[in-house]
Amino acid sequence: MDRHSIQADGVSATISGLGAELTSFKSQGREMLWQAGPVWPRHAPVLFPIVGRLADDRLVHHGRDYKLTQHGFARDRQFAFSETKAASCKLTLRDDAATRALYPFAFKFELTFAIDNGVLTVGYSVTNPGQEVLPVSMGAHPAFRWPLADGVDKDVHTLTFDSDETTPLPRLSGGLLGVADRPSPIHRRVLPLSEALFANDALILTKPSSRSVRFEAPGAPGIEMRWHGFPSFGIWMRQGGDFLCLEPWYGMASPADWSGEFKNKPGLALLAPGGHLDASYSVRVLEP
Question: Which domains does the chain have, with CATH numbers?
Answer without folding.
Answer: 3-150+227-286 (2.70.98.10)
